[in-house]
Amino acid sequence: MADPAVAADPARAVVILAAGQGTRMRSPTPKVLHRLAGRAMLDLAIDAAQTLGAERIVVVAGAHSPEVAAHAASRLGEHAVAIQDPPLGTGHAVRAAQPALAGFTGDVVVTYADTPLLDAAAVEPLFAARRAGAALAVLGFEAVDPGAYGRLVLEADGGLNRIVEAKEASAEELAIRLCNSGVIAAPAKLLFELLAEVTNTNAKGEYYLTDVVALARGWGLQVAAVLTDEVRTLGVNSQAELAAAEAQWQDGRRREALAAGVAMPAPDTVIFAHDTVVEGGALVEPHVMFAAGVTVRSGAVIRAFSHLEGAEVQAEAIVGPYARLRPGAHIGRGAHVGNFVEVKNVTLGPGAKANHLAYLGDGEVGARANIGAGVIFCNYDGFDKHRTTVGEGAFVGSDTALVAPVRIGARAMTGSGSVITRDVADDALALERSPQVEKPGWAARFRARKLVGRAKLK
Ligand code: UD1
Ligand code: MG
């Protein structure tokens, strides 16, 4: 049976602020489209909103970065984008989302696209505070260095009285370590009523979102401060801060992997992506990089210095060292992919092996087939990609070029150095090279002639 308390929870909307200039990134790419764990920060913010069960999500973008608006629209639809033009402060930014939330009567939570470590778990307690009776709930943290953050001024009963921006704070208020993350939850109707009252008569001449707290208190409403770890609220304004956030994220992800039973002798050298799945019981050697879309099953081994993206590796398979798995690489149970082997859009059957220096692109390799050193699937003719099929138990000799589309039959063999352009039948041997010529004694005669010539010169 559904828990009535949960069933009674108001619907949720998330307003994601992304209208900042981001000039300190010193990059032509808008700040919130920079990636953390291989995913744009804006997407991470949208992911968190979706995990929170938001029925409406609005991204507030600036007029200066149409790419941000386009990115949000491509994921959520045009109706989910609000343009704040010009940016006049955080309160003004939230107001820009009001038309997009027309008809929405539930709770709104404001988050930030440049705060990539703020996951759903960090925001969820705000809704608990709302459930417990607070009209507004603000996410705060104990800052190591409160610096320019807004300070949370509490009341005797622990409720929040107001938020004072550092620029406006008295010396006494500046000494407060409890800071504002900027994340706030409130019923939509109330939030916009409060925002309509916010003015810009302050040090920055901006409409501060934070002013809604004191206004709500003035209306006799209760405001809760909910605390989270400072690291969750880490904002990104520069490449250095992005790298610091990435390091934090990787550190957490590595701990998770270790706790789940992934063997990693040098975890600090392993890079995960936001969606990497490595099952407990897998071994990941040093200096492995997972780009997006990788699944590694229990019992697989990813050896040192391998790069994997969009790939699946089954149990007992061994990948690397120095392997490159690209999107669509499916490495079957017990299959081996060795050093300097690149695999793209190829399924390697169980027990198949490609151990040295090969390119396998667009095709299929049957169970237990052996791909020799230097084999190339010539998949591209300059216009189209073509498929190569290698049958079960086939043996593709070293330095074979398989010119796709082409099929090597089950248990068939190809001679070393062959350029195979036509299908090879099951159990056949295909050879494509000129017959070897041997001239008995030729080398010895050649050498003798040369040595005589040298002697004459002296
Ligand atoms: C804000 C908070 C402060 C808090 C801090 C946490 C206010 C008034 N102050 O200060 O209490 O401690 O964040 O980092 O809210 N943005 C827009 N449009 C605007 C202005 C800002 O979209 O017009 C976005 C920015 O892109 C950024 C976020 O809002 O993601 C915060 O803006 P910022 O100017 O950095 O606010 P702070 O002064 O840091
Ligand atoms: Mg800021």
Produce a short descriptive summary.
Helix content is about 25%, strand content about 30%. It has about 450 residues and is of the alpha/beta class.
Write up what this structure looks like.
- With 458 residues, this protein is of the alpha/beta class.
- The chain folds into 2 domains: 12-233, Spore Coat Polysaccharide Biosynthesis Protein SpsA, Chain A (Alpha-Beta Complex); 239-430, Hexapeptide repeat proteins (UDP N-Acetylglucosamine Acyltransferase, domain 1).
- It is built from 10 helices and 32 strands.
- The strands form 5 sheets. The chain has an 18-stranded parallel sheet that branches. A 7-stranded mixed sheet has the order 5-4-1-6-10-7-11. Strands 25-28-31 form a 3-stranded parallel sheet, with no helix packed on it.
- Strand 4, helix 3 and strand 5 form a beta-alpha-beta unit.
- Helix 7 (188-197) crosses helix 8 (211-218).
- The model has no long low-confidence stretch (mean pLDDT 96).
- The structure holds uridine-diphosphate-N-acetylglucosamine (UD1) and magnesium ion.
- The site of uridine-diphosphate-N-acetylglucosamine has 25 residues, from helix 4 and strand 10.
- Uridine-diphosphate-N-acetylglucosamine (UD1) binds next to helix 4 and strand 10.
